[in-house]
Every structure is written in C-alpha cells, then in structure tokens.
Amino acid sequence: ILIANRCIYFKFDPCYQRSRLFFIFSLGTVSQFQLEQTLSQPKLNHQQEIAIDSTTSSNSEELDLMSIVKASQTIAAEIVLDELLRKLIQIVVENAGAQLGLLILDQQGQLSIEAKAQGQETTVSISIPLTDSEQFPLSIINYVARTQESVILDSAASEQLFNHDPYLVKNQSQSILCTPLVNQGELLGLIYLENNLTTQAFTNDRLEIINILASQAAISLKNAVLYQQMQTLNENLQETKEALAESNRNLEQKVQQRTQSLSETLEVLKATQAELQFENRLLRSEADFSDYDYQVGGSLPMDAPTYVVRSADRYLYKAIKQGKFCYILNPRQMGKSSLMIQMMHHLRHEGYYCAAIDLTRIGGDDVTREQWYKGLAVELWKNLGLLRKVNLKQWWQQQSDLSPVQRFSEFLEEVVLPYVGTEEDKTSQPIVIFIDEIDAVLSLDFSVNDFFALIRACYNLGGINSAYRRLRFVLLGVATPSDLITDTRRTPFNIGEAISLSGFKRHEAQPLLQGLTEKVENPQTVLKEVLAWTKGQPFLTQKICHLIRNASEPIPAQQEATWVSELVQTNIIDNWEAQDEPEHLKTVRDRVLYSRWPRNELLALYEQILEQGAVPVQETPLEKELILSGLVKQEEGYLQVKNPIYEIIFNQEWIARNKS
Question: What radius of gyration do the chain's Cα atoms show?
C-alpha cells in the first residue's frame, strides 16, 4: 500500500515520474490492478504531464508505461537462457522501432552474437564471433564494451567519431543505438539496434526505456546463465551417478565371472597336475642311479637321470597329440636330440609308432636325388619294423618309372600306412617320424623343395584320406625355414608348430641337484650360481655341474658364489680354446666366423648387442644367423648375449681380432 501511494504521489510530480517507473520495474511488488489504479488518477495540469515520447499523447504515455512494465515482467519471468534471449531481443526491437537488433554477450572475454532479430525472423544461440569488420560496426561495439556507455547515432555514416568504420562506410547506416548490459559493474553484453529507414529513429527517451529494460535483462541474463550452469551440473552429476551405478553393476558382474573362471581354472589345474605327474614318471626314470653323473655333450639316453624336462617338452607332446607338423630349429647343443629320444620313449609308452632319421647318415653332396630318397625309405623301413613284411629293394625297383619324390610318396602310402602296426591298430595308432639334422639338406647338390612340399601334402591329404591322419612329422636342426625351402607356396612351415628350446629355468633344473648334494651343504645355492653363469645353456650347465661333482674338495659354506666363479674362470674361460673339450665354444665361434653371411656384418651386429646390452629385434637374416650360432638369444623383443661366459670370451678384443 505504501509503494502504491508513493506511485500515486509521483504521478503528479514530473520530477519523480522516472522514479515511478524504477519503483514499479525494480521492486516488482505492485500488482497490475494497483498499477491500473495508479495510472487512472487525474492529472493536476498539463505542465505535470510526463512525455516519454514527444510525439505521443497522455494516453500513449500510459500505454508505453504499461507495455514497459509488462515487458519487464516477461523478461524477469523467463529463466531458460535461449527463451530469454529470444524474448529480450524481440521486446527491445519492438519497443525501440528498430529494423535490426543484435544481442551480444561476453563469453569469457570474447564478444559474440547470441541472438538476432530482423523483420519477423528471430534466431538465438547462433554464437557468431565479432571478427569481421565489414559485417558489424566493430568500432561502435568495442567503444560501448570498453566505456560501458550507451551510444546513439542519428546519422551514423556521417558521425565524426565512427565515420571511418568499414561497416558504416559500406552500408551508409542511418540510426544506431548501442547500450551495455551491466550487472553489479560486470559487463554481460550489449544490445545493438539499427534503423536505416530514417535518421533520428532512436531518441534519448527511447534510450531511457531501453536502459530500463536492459537493467532487468542484465539481472535475468545472470540468473539464466546460473540456472543453465546449475542444470548442466545436475545433468553431469546424474550422468556420473548413472555411470557409477553401471560401473558397479559391471564390476559385480566381472567379479562373479572372474570367480567362476578361477574356480573352473582351479579344477583344470588339479586335473592337469595329475596328468603332468604321470608324464614326468614316463619322461624321467625314478630309479636310484648309483653311478649318477652329468653328461657333457651328445644326446642323453632315455633313462638319463640328469635329463631336464622343459616347457618345450610339454609343447611338443601336446602338438604331436593334436596331429600337428612340428619343427625345432635351434642352435646346436641345446638338447634337440635328447628331447627327441625322450619324446619317442614317452610316445611309445602310449602305443605310438616312432621312427628317427638322422639325415647325416644318408649322405651329403656325394649322393644323388634317387639315393637320398631311397635312403629315407630304408631308414623308415628299418625303424618301423618292416624288414620282414616288405621286400624294399624289389618294391623300389618296381616303381622305377616314377620320380624319386613320387616313389617316396608311394612308399608312405603303400608300405608305411598299411603295414605299420598290428591288425587291431593299423588304422588308428599314429606314426611319428622324427627327422634330425634337417640342416644337412643344405649341403645337397639338388633342391629338396619337393620333399618339404610332400610333408605339407601329407597333412592336407588327412582331410580326404583318414589313413594320412596317422602320419606326424617332427623336423629338428640348425636352420631357418627360409634356409630349407625357398618356395613359400609349398612350404609346410607356415602350417606347422614351431617349438623353441630355451635355457634351463631354476625350477626345471631340479633333477641336477642330486649330483651336487655330495659336495655342497646348500645345493640350491650352488645351482643358482651355476645358472647365473650359464643362463641355463644345457651344455655349459651340465659341464659346470660335472666339474663341481668331480672337484677334489667340497665347496666352503657361505662362499658358493666366489667358489663357482673361480671354477668357471679357471676351467672354462682361461685358455678356453685348449680347454674346450668336448667342443662347444669353438662350435659357437665357427658358426659366426665361417657363416655364409659376411663375417664383418655379423661381427658388427654382435658388437652392437655387446655394447648396448640389448638391441630391438628387426627379424633380419643376420639376426637369425646370429641366433642360430647360439651366441645371442631373442627375449621379449630384444637380442641379448646369451650368458656371461660368452660375453667374457667373445669380447671386444675377440671381435677386433677377427674382423677382416
């Protein structure tokens, strides 16, 4: 009531007329009914009449006042930013009588147009940056933004302060009004209005009305921005809550799945443990050997107590059981032949028929193609127990019209498959053919691509003829697949299983402890020191264990590392060429120095590995040759010197001495 009475009083006082507008606008507590009552009071005289627009009557003055109040209420009631921008620019353009209206906001120090009204068309959220001086009067906009003062131009193109603005020069603009939107001293944006139909379209009174609306607009804009930020935060919070809930659900599900998987794995491991225990009983004799000793060089017999079962034994056994073609291409003296002997012994226990062919027994550059293939047939004929079942000489002569490889193929189909085995298992029990020293084919005077292609053909025929599924081939030697066959279309190596022989791991080398117990109080510590020097290289490991077992005095307690180091230095490293019996270090040396690859290139690569400690693998022929020499190993994508003994013997001085 008090505010309404003040408004009634102010109506009759021209000095306070504008204050009445601010009371109604800013306090917002007078109802529309009270406002209408206030406006309906009689005027005292003509001089007290307030002219909002010099061209309007008293009735239009009151109408303007009503429209301003309604407009401010509309602006104040809107909280959604896009709708506020739309209504604000429409109201301002309508009340000012402008052709073009732009609502410009300050976005983190950059001015951009967020709403535009022109004619009947209004667009919002357009976010056009104010960079083009020919599209917008940047001089006016920047001036208002900088000074926070309004600008009214009656004839903008001729205004001295801005007449050089490219936009004004180009468009010959007439009436322009630009006013800031300020809230508590902070610039929120600007309102830019333009009318090119007439000059003096925007008067100071119109500016007063626009400023009143701009004051409410600044408050509403601030509230709308805060509301939009709050909405965004709420949405982000809700999304985060949902994501967290989904993550928790997924985590619970994964925990359940993992628990079930671990339970199943545990059951498999229990079953596998029993199977491995059974395999170990077959692969290693459990007899008590009174003459226990280590074997240095050569293949270990099938009952050797020092045979070490490695992961390669497992992989090979599994691959053969699955009917795969396997190949073991590794450096010399890594235990290939010993593995073959043990695996044959194991498989025969399970009813498999096994044959081993050493290609060095057949011959090298002095044999013909026909002699070589017949040699293969003879070895199988003897190994598979066919001497009394088939007259090989007669059979071979009967096939004289065929090429050697065709004869050997027919031998497999007509002799091996039908005659190997008893009447009960001729069609079921597998036949495993081990071919050792496969690198001997490199010395032949003829190509054996057809031989490797035949092996591939036998595996392919297994899909057509079930009898061929009995055949399994295992190749062993010191070569790479590309050395053995150059025709990649017919090679069997891209359908086979590569078995890699690595050095003894400490848990694998436990069978070697038995020979150390008589000499040392702590054999595990001694074995650890031996493996530190050899990195599990089979020949060197067996040799050092043999030296320890045959030492004249026991190893002093707590001095194992020093004692083993002195033993290695004295008996292996010092004067190594004279002490290398049986030969091992010389074999490594000769493979490097007398390779078919240029010596200096191999030595340069080895020197790089020796200096850097590890070099990334590039899969080059030089790298493969160096690996086959046994001097370096490939581990986790890097080439490294295989063990400290090689590193000391084949050092920088040795490299320099042997470079040509």
Answer: 49
